[in-house]
Inverse folding.
């Protein structure tokens, strides 16, 4: 690996650890203890799963990713070194741009941020409809930012495992966005209808 490759790898690994664990998982666990976050295991009949079961599900999910990355190092295409370097540069720019956009959206949401799934969405009792920052022109900017981030990562590491993660994020976040729209429409009514008139769902100026 060249020095550039090591620098790119360090940026990617450090940023993924920060956004996935220090920023996302830590806040989710805090909110989960307060009963303000969705659970990885669905609640049934008012029964709440113990915190350790949620952590176990998260660890299991991470464990599943290990063989995915180990056996998924199959190159998507074979390319010349010059092309690979160019894709690395473009991919890094897109990765950092997507990451910056995602963090901007997260900062704008502030205390109203929360993890959702395609089946569960939880809003705070005092939840407000944020319409500033990136939310002024797109309703789900964190998902858009992450898609750009993952597309950039696919250009940097054009292997099967990373491509599958990119595809999974597109499918998963599209489902989450639709579910969130239903819940937000129920909570905010006319305010939500007016908000939708001048914003796109996920892709700025497109969709």
């Amino acid at each position: 690996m060249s020095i550039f490759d090591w620098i790119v790898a360090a940026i990617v690994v450090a940023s993924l650890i920060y956004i996935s664990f220090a920023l996302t998982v830590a806040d989710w666990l805090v909110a989960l203890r307060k009963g303000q976050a969705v659970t990885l295991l669905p609640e049934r009949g008012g029964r709440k799963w113990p915190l350790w079961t949620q952590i176990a599900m998260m660890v299991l999910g991470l464990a599943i990713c290990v063989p995915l990355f180990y056996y998924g190092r199959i190159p998507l295409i074979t390319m010349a070194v010059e092309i690979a370097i160019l894709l690395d540069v473009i991919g890094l720019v897109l990765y950092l741009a997507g990451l910056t956009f995602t963090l901007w959206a997260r900062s704008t949401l502030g205390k109203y941020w929360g993890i959702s799934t395609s089946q569960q969405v939880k809003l705070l009792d005092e939840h407000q409809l944020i319409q500033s920052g990136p939310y002024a022109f797109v309703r789900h900017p964190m998902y858009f930012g992450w898609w750009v981030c993952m597309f950039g990562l696919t250009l940097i590491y054009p292997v099967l495992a990373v491509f599958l993660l990119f595809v999974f994020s597109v499918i998963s976040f599209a489902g989450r966005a639709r579910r969130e729209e239903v819940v937000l429409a129920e909570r905010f009514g006319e305010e939500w209808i007016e908000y939708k008139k001048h914003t796109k769902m996920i892709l700025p100026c497109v969709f």
Summary: The chain has one domain: 3-197.
